[in-house]
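TL;DR need structure tokens for one chain.
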Amino acid sequence: MINLNEISNSLRPVFLPDEIFRLKVIKAGEGPEQGVGYLDDGTMVVIEGARNRIGDELDVRVTSTLQTNAGKMIFTKFETE
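>> reply
TL;DR here they are.
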């Protein structure tokens, strides 16, 4: 049986725009200044301006989220210290 509540919860964004959370930059992104990290559930997080911060844990601010067929993506920028 399909549970509509579970489907609804799976489509809800993990983070909302302007929320801040801490994340480790794992690798370079596709864009020239992008870094990439991952949440525990495998959600990819693109971090603007973090390409030269690979290996660092940063406070990032959510700018937008995107639901694709492959899963969720979160776009962020890192908060300067």
